């Protein structure tokens, strides 16, 4: 009997992992990708997917065969949004950033040791970077949002992540060495905003600023992404100020909610 809670917790962990993987992209994921990303066997993944589909949490696209989020997720999300009025608070800032800069603006949340993109507002500049969109996850310290958040965590939390950096960064470790990440974190603390100089995709730059919760901890981030020429050195201070102003505006509003 003592093993039952562990087994139950394992099932929940596996289900949550599959939901997160499917939710990374609007078009969902094929079975082979879910098997590879989850590390589970094909029969196990298929069994869990079938169970989730029967509960309305997942659907299978009849044309492409990809697994996508189901209607029950929409219902759950609509209920959760009443508790976390992030759309109402963050959307005006995203619109101002997109309008004033012409770049695409994003709002991301910290979830454990990752950031998850929640909201996007497209800018007017016709050439865009498509590295970031709703549902995309990055390890903390990777991409401008994750760097902005990690830079203002307590030092011991940063060192916990850096102590086993290759495992934490995963496939991003090659382009984000520990030494480079430490340098970026220090530069972020000095400037107040983070800069990602094409480390995820060559030519695709980003900048981010942390948004703080009621305890004064970095829990969210605003970011801008675009092509490298749009983030030239003489323009970055202006973009950084705009990001920090809007991040402070959102932090103040969130800290005032109860």
Automatic annotation (TrEMBL):
Pfam families xref list: HTH_IclR, IclR_C
| Keyword DNA-binding recorded | yes
Q: Which InterPro entries match?
A: GAF-like_dom_sf, HTH_MetabolicPath_Reg, Tscrpt_reg_IclR_C, Tscrpt_reg_IclR_N, WH-like_DNA-bd_sf, WH_DNA-bd_sf
Q: What is this protein called?
A: IclR family transcriptional regulator
- Give the species this sequence originates from: Arthrobacter humicola
Q: Does the keyword Transcription apply?
A: yes
List, for all copies, the residue spans of the domain called IclR-ED: 72-256
Q: Which SMART domains does this UniProt record tie to the protein?
A: HTH_ICLR
Where the record annotates domain HTH iclR-type, the positions are 9-71
What keywords sit in the KW lines?
DNA-binding, Transcription, Transcription regulation
């Amino acid at each position: 009997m003592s093993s039952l809670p562990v087994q139950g917790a394992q099932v929940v962990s596996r289900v949550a992992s599959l939901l997160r993987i499917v939710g990374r992209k609007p078009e969902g994921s094929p079975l082979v990708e879910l098997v590879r990303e989850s590390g589970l066997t094909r029969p196990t993944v298929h069994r869990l997917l079938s169970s989730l589909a029967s509960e309305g949490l997942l659907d299978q696209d009849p044309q492409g065969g990809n697994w996508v989020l189901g209607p029950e997720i929409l219902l759950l999300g609509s209920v959760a949004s009443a508790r976390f009025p992030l759309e109402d608070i963050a959307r005006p800032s995203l619109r101002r950033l997109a309008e004033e800069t012409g770049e695409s603006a994003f709002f991301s949340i910290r979830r454990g040791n990752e950031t998850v993109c929640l909201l996007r507002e497209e800018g007017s500049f016709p050439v865009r970077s498509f590295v970031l969109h709703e549902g995309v996850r990055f390890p903390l310290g990777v991409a401008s949002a994750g760097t902005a958040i990690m830079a203002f965590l307590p030092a011991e939390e940063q060192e916990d992540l850096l102590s086993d950096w290759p495992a934490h960064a995963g496939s991003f470790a090659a382009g984000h060495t520990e030494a480079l990440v430490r340098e970026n974190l220090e530069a972020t603390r000095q400037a107040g905003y983070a800069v990602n100089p094409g480390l995820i995709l060559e030519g695709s730059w980003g900048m981010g600023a942390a948004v703080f919760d009621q305890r004064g901890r970095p829990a969210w981030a605003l970011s801008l992404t675009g092509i490298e020429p749009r983030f030239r050195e003489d323009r970055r201070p202006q973009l950084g100020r705009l990001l920090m102003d809007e991040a402070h505006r959102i932090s103040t509003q969130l800290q005032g909610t109860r």
